[in-house]
Write a structure and sequence with these properties.
By secondary structure, the protein is α+β, with helices and mostly antiparallel strands. The chain is built from four helices and nine strands; from the N terminus they run E-H-H-E-E-E-E-E-E-H-E-E-H. It is globular and about 40 Å long.
Amino acid sequence: MAELKTQVNDASVIDFINSVEIEQRKKDCLELLKIFAEVTGEQPKMWGNSIVGYGSYHYESERSAQKGDWMMTGFSPRKQSLTIYIMPGFDKYGDIMNDLGKYKTSVSCLYVKKLSDIDETKLRELIKASFDHMKSKYHS
């Protein structure tokens, strides 16, 4: 079985964010650093070379032999949008999602063009609810 490519490492989160070329995205990432730190109480860590993650958990897939460690939540300044990782997905958070603002989702990814497109209070609620869910599921 191949080792997961995206691993936690000691690279500088600030250096990574300062390397973001799109100025608005860089400002949004600096704001996300504050939001995630306040909501999770965790220090940011680089996961691979492009994801800022908070907390970690060990998983073992029920469908395959894959297992490893992964962040509980985090974000990445991708080329098309900011990607915010909500690991439990979004099914449990309909009330929050209804009032969040302008976004797209996939399984565990929330995509926003810029932070001003979404409600910061609702984003904080979403991060907290999903982070608390992950902590209770993996660190009980």
